[in-house]
Structure formats: C-alpha cells, structure tokens
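Q: Structure tokens for this one, please.
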Amino acid sequence: MQRWLDAFGAALCSALIAIAVATPVGAQAGAMATPKSPKAAAKQSKNANGQGKKSGQTKKGNQDKPRRPRQPADAVRRFRTPDGSRFVLVPTPGVPQVQWAIASIADAATDPPAMRGLAAAVQQASLGGTWEIGSADRAREREALTKLAATQNALLEKPGDPTLMQELQAAEALAARLGDPRIFDRVLAAAPAHAPEVRVDDVVAIFQLTTIPSAIGEVGALLVQRRERQVLRNLPQHWFAETRTRQARYAANPLAPAYAELLALAMPRSPEADAAGPPGRAIPRREQAMAVWHATQHPSRTVHVLLGGFDADAVKAILDTTFRSTALPTPPTVARERPRAFTASRRSVVPGTGRRAVLLAWPLAKVKNPLELSNATRWLTGGSPSRLTRELRRKGRAKAVARARAPWPEAVGGRSLFVLEVEDPSGTDGLADLVTNLCRSLTAKAPPQGQLAQALRQVRSNWSLVTGDPRWHARDIARHVLLWPGQPLPKTPQTAAPGAVHRLLKATFRPHPVVVETRP
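A: Here is the predicted structure, written as tokens:
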C-alpha cells in the first residue's frame, strides 16, 4: 500500500507539472473562467479566434494572451532577499519548467574534527521534513528525539552497555512512529515540485528540484520552512551511509594515503589535511549536527539559482516577500588561508601503494578567471597523450603518464593547490626533479594560440554538455557562484588568452613544490 502511495505521489507531481507546462501562465486564469451565458461564450470564442476586431486591435486587460518574459535571455538578475539569501535568476525563454538549485559549502572546515562528511549527511537528512511536515505529534516527537540524543550521548561514554542499547532501540522505534520522512516529498509534489535531490560534489552540496513559474512562491515557502524548522530525521542512518561511502572510496584508491601525506606537508594546519586520511568512526551528537545545518544553511552561506521561462521582475518580487527573515544564528567565521609558497623542497615517501608515482603540489597562483585555469590545466595535461606526457617520453620516460588537478582540494576562490600526478611503472628515481624542470621550461613563454585551440575545444565540449540540460546548467551556475564569488557567470568560451595562461602557470611553478613519492 505504501509503495503504491509513493508511486501515486510521484505520478501526481509529474502530471501537475505537465498540465501546468502545457498551459501558458497567462492562459491558466482564462481557462478557469466560465462565461455566464451562451452569448458571452460566443463572444469569448469570437474574440479568441481573432474575429470581430480590426487587425492590430487588442482588448485592454485581455487575459487570454499568454504572458512572455519581458527581458532577453541574457538578462540575469543577481540580488539578495531581505533575509540575506543570494539569488541568481536566469530567465530562459523556451524552458517552461523552473530549475531551482541551492548550493552550500560542505568542505572539511564546516565539519567537526574527525567527522568529515557530517555536512553531507545533514543535507541528506534534511529531505526528511520539518516539525510541521512529517510529524504525527510535534511535542512527543521532540521529546522522543531529545531522549534518543541523550541515549546516544550516554552510549558514547559507555560503549556497548546493554541497558543503554535497549533504551536506544526503544527511543529509535518511538521516533520512527512519530515522524514520517516521506511526507515532505509528497508535499513538494503537490506544490508542484518534482525530483527533489541532494548531490554532494567534493566541497559543494546542492539541493535541487524542478517546479513551474506559478508555484515559485509556494515552493519558496516550503524551502524556508526546510531551512528554519529542520528536524534531521533518520540522521544516524544517513551518517553511517556517508561514512561507509567515504571508507569504501578511500580503500578503493591506492594513492589516497599519498594524497593525505601531500596535504600534511603542503597544508599542515588546515582542516583538509586532517580530513584527507581514513574517515573517522566517531558518532556525531545531535547538537553538533544541528550546528552544522545552521552554519551551512544560513542565508549568508547559500546561493539560490532559478533557471527557466519566467518574468524575472515578478519572480524577484515573490522571492523578496517569501525570503524575509531568518532565525538561524549567525555562523562563526571560517578561516580559509591560501597555502604559502615554500623556500625549500619538502619530500616524503609512501610505501605499500602498489604504484610507482610522484605527486607534486604548488600553491596555486591567484586565479583571476576560472576559465584561464581550465585552459591552463588542459593545455598542460589534457589530451592523450598530454603535452607534459609527450615531453616526459622525449626524455626517455616511455611509460610515464601525467595528470593535473587544480584547484585541489577545491576551495572558494581557488585558494588551494595545483597538483600533478605522474605515474611511471619503470620507477620514480629522478622523476620529481624532471617534472619540475619540464613544468618550468614549458611555461617559460606563452604557449602559441594554436596549441591552446585543442584545450579550448575540450572546454567548449564540456560546456555544451552541461548547458544542454537545464537542470545540469542550474546546478553548474550555483556551484560557480558559490566557489567563485564576484566572478561573472560562465559563458560559452570564445577564446583562450596565451598571456593569461602563461602568467598563471609561470607564477604557480616558480616556488619549490611539495613532493610525495609512492612505492609498491
């Protein structure tokens, strides 16, 4: 029965969106109006067919003509609502639905120590609803969750205590009876809002859904309630799922210990260095999880992107009314320092990886335009074989393969590292020095425009892939605005400037790198 209800809710949402999309916004009101008499009906039909009026005449206030966005497709609007939320409106004529994406930071600095992934886990738990949506009895559910949290905290002090284990099971069962995490999805479906999902991509968490222009106000009210009245139902299950995923990912990557060592050398005091090792097995307290939710979802820390065929002025007025205020506490300031250049080389060896490779990391020079960084990394290590790989093979490294990651780890404004991973099954003796010298010689002067053409084509190809799907496009814009504040929205790349690529790479490779060698 429950499975049928879930399927019915999803089908109802799709049907509502399909009906609303098929009916133009301005025609919806006219379709609902019933003429009072046959004479009125005939008159309405005559006007709808364009008869009874001279060509070019229109009746003032006629509601039958569909409304169209008044601004061109590129009239992007950026603004803050009264509660401080950042919004980006991307009117896109011809896209009848509205893609709504909310981006927030989910990096190591937002998580408590030894609890890497908590920001991602609370995002998943947020889909379980609010105190008003999904609760059979708000007062009793609050008491049950308080009891559950107290029992979990007691178990942290006395692991495996049989009495506490029984109390925990009873508290979990009571909380499950009093709160239904499936209701929020159904309420969204009735708005209508389709396909709500959370995606965590490295350091960015994005909550996204699809709706229609006429439902933006109602959906916005539900999103405000999700932010302000969050319960975090089933948080332990989401936390354990997140830690299992991270543990499996770490175990599957033979170079993961080497990357952890690289961060320990390059950014020893950063949260990222602590989080790069094996995921911890600590259990977060409920108050810790709520603190992470409040800090990441505060209006000052989020970016909303709406992309679709709507009137930007009308939508802005609705959002200003809906997102009026917040009761969330002001989040603490998070210090994210740019890695400093080293005056001498730092080296380390990590054995037991089963691989022969070197990892080199430089503090990434200041990035003025993310597109310049994309062109630079693809020019140096894009293609098969890449330019750096070809140079290594000319120097006798016939099996060497080079790859670049920048910025790594991802960080706001690119305040991070430029990392080269070079693998050579024949051995790593002298490989780090050879790579360092090649990087400096390759970037001694600006690359020819023709060499950048191939990199630019790949950037364009990726751009077309992302922007071809409105949902992907909205998500990409939200991610870009969050990570690159103050930068213009990405557009179709037209050209690559050799001088900009040259300056960025030359400044990056000028200091000494941090080097980690891996051995079988």
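A few notes: Residues 1-73 have pLDDT under 50 and may be disordered. The first strand starts at residue 77 and ends at 80.
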